[in-house]
């Protein structure tokens, strides 16, 4: 099945003389287990698209389906978006944005507790995730004690905490060197394949594109599928 489906998403900012058509009839279907890269120059509409499917910045028109469920039709929401986001979506940003006075473990636990986990269940799940992402040995450290790549792994653990069916990442490797950047991209592919999540990564980073199943290019608000790599 599909993790994400969009139908002819259009976004217009402003009106009259200041009108900007940031996204035009954008259509993308992402299967469960598929990892997609969205490329394109600055100002081409990538953030507009990502925040539309992230249920943060609704489109002007068009429909968004998550896990087969119609969630948005233009700015009309068919569910409580905030609750839906917390339950089904995971976000990773350019910077890890960890809470500086909480340990790596606590940063992941809090995402679980906000969603109703007990402290005990949160601790077990958070530790399991840090181990899975290769930073279990840094669980007790504050973010300032971790490298950029380690911090980003903790941020990915936090995004995965509530078993989201969709992971959205905005330039997640921008602050990393190419080796660490590649590791984080490989992690997204692994997560998509192992957890059957649909993953969309907006990136300028052309060094690790081989890890993606599908590449899309956005230009002047229009999305085109660039290529399809058949997973073996
Ligand atoms: P990208 O993420 O590819 O850099 P964006 O989605 O941020 O592209 O922007 C696409 C276009 O929409 C750009 O022309 C940008 O200036 C415009 N835009 C983005 N956000 C706003 C906004 N809040 N108000 C007006 N114009 C915006
Ligand atoms: P919380 O109340 O815990 O921040 P939300 O449901 O408001 O949770 O948001 C869910 C996710 O969406 C969070 O990871 C948050 O960082 C992201 N998010 C919410 N609003 C915005 C926004 N305006 N821009 C970018 N990301 C956002």
From TrEMBL:
GO terms for molecular function: ATP binding; ATP hydrolysis activity; transmembrane transporter activity. It is an enzyme of class 3 (hydrolase). Signal peptide: none annotated. Keywords: ATP-binding, Hydrolase, Lipoprotein, Nucleotide-binding, Transport. Its EC number is 3.6.3.-. Belongs to the ABC transporter superfamily. Macrolide exporter (TC 3.A.1.122) family. This is Lipoprotein-releasing system ATP-binding protein LolD.
């Amino acid at each position: 099945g599909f993790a994400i489906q969009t139908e002819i998403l259009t976004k217009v900012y402003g009106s009259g003389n200041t009108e900007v058509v940031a996204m035009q009839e954008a259509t993308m279907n992402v299967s469960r287990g598929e990892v997609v890269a969205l490329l394109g120059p600055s100002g081409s509409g990538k953030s507009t698209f990502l925040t539309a499917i992230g249920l943060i910045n609704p489109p002007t028109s068009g429909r968004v389906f998550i896990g087969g469920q119609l969630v948005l039709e233009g700015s009309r929401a068919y569910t409580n978006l905030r609750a839906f986001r917390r339950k089904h979506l995971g976000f990773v940003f350019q910077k890890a944005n960890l809470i500086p006075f909480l340990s790596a473990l606590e940063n992941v636990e809090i995402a679980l507790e906000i969603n109703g986990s007990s402290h005990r269940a949160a601790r077990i799940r958070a530790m399991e995730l840090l181990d899975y992402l290769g930073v279990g040995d840094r669980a007790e450290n504050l973010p300032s004690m971790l490298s950029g790549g380690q911090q980003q792994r903790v941020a990915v653990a936090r995004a995965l905490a509530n078993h989201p069916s969709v992971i959205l990442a905005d330039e997640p490797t921008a602050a990393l060197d190419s080796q660490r950047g590649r590791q984080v991209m490989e992690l997204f592919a692994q997560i998509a394949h192992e957890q059957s999540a649909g993953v969309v990564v907006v990136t300028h980073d052309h060094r690790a594109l081989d890890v993606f199943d599908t590449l899309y290019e956005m230009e002047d608000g229009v999305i085109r599928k660039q290529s399809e790599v058949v997973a073996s």
